[in-house]
Amino acid sequence: MEQVTESINEISTDYLIVGAGAMGLAFADTLLTENKTAQFVIVDKRAMPGGHWVDAYPFVTLHQPAAAYGVNSSKLGSGGADLSSHAELMFYFERVMQKLLASGRVTFLPLCECNAFADDEVIVHSVVDSDLNYRISIAQRLVDATYMKVQVPASHPPKYSVSDAYTLVPPNGLIRQQRSWGRYTIIGAGKTGIDAILFLLDSGVSPDKIQWVISNDMWLWNRANVQIHNVVDELVRHIKTVKASGSTNEIFETLEKLGSVFRLNPTIRPTKWRCATVAPDEFAQLKQVRDQVRLGRVNEIRDGEIILSDGRIPIDSDTLIVDCSANGLEQRASLPIFNDKRITLQSVFMCQQVFSAAIIGKLESMDMSDAKRNQMWKVVPHPERVEDYPESMVQTFENLINGNKYKPWWLRRCRLNIMSHMSLFPYVVGSLRSAIAARGARKSLSRLESS
User: Fold this and answer.
1) How does pLDDT run across 163-204, given as a tens digit for each residue?
2) Which residues contact 120 (CB under 8 A, 6 or more apart)?
3) Which stretches of 178-280 are assigned E, i.e. beta strand?
4) CATH assignment of 9-148+333-403?
């Protein structure tokens, strides 16, 4: 029998980008524009570009204006407060990839994974053909666009066990139901859980048939306040509140009085802040769901019970369990963004991942040391707890002020900067107001830490 020898394809490139999600594409788009000669290889284990959006539930929409999402060179949405749908996003990312490929300087390797790393060489394997391999030689940098580790229920099963006697689906499964259920139990209080509940309510399901398992309450950001016409007012309001408050709890209670944030139960002090936005009318819908279970995390579902860390509740077989417990954007340790032969994409603006990736692409194109790049825009880890919020907000303002010192015109023209959609005079005034409001904010953090 003839022996088959494994072959390997040799590719040379300037930049290898691991991950064709929103951040990887935003980085590639900006650097491709700024650097007229660089070559790129983009690798992703999925069959198409879009990252976690490929796996997301079909009824998902953006939680921020589409005008400031995607990649810098390609418009998304109809402007204003428009929130793009899942179908719109998938079409958009496909068009972005086609635009990158049309440059002649980008190679896309879908359904591939990187299994072996070195400073200047990476081995890439196909996930569908064990004989298809690539050795990629890297002249400039490897760009890790996967570090933020976005998780969705469809690709990350729950950490709790469920007996075969019960039906559990990710939110994707809601659109495929062929029968009605006596009860819908939503497990998870983040953006995904909110979306699942709103989908059921919008589909005509009575709120009395919905049970919401909330392991931790979180503050919700009023989406009406995070729009092109009022985002500067909102951010200034936040930084002023941080400066004036004596504790983290006081910050959120003040913002609640100002209409910036919501909480589901006025008697419960939320412990989480993850930048989840909700419109006022959506918040009113959520409050219609009265059956809210707060007994910690789910450990197991069996024998007619949901067993939680702090108690048990009954369940019957006529219940559809919707798992929304995947940790979306989990908080991760900060790494140097620019580190010799590697770039690790992370947020440098609170909860603005694609804007951050574009900024990092711009920094890479500038003639300066890695130390200066890392100092100019410092990492702002995705917040998890309310205690993370003050530092995230202050560092965001400091980064924006630093950026305006070096590249004010680029920031002004970057469509991923939500402020850039304002006309020039309000933009300049808003930038000055932000800089003035941020004065002394760093000192206030020490007071909060000691309180």
Assistant:
1) 999 999 999 999 999 899 999 999 999 999 999 999 999 999
2) 137, 138, 139, 341
3) 183-187, 210-213, 218-222, 261-262, 272-278
4) 3.50.50.60
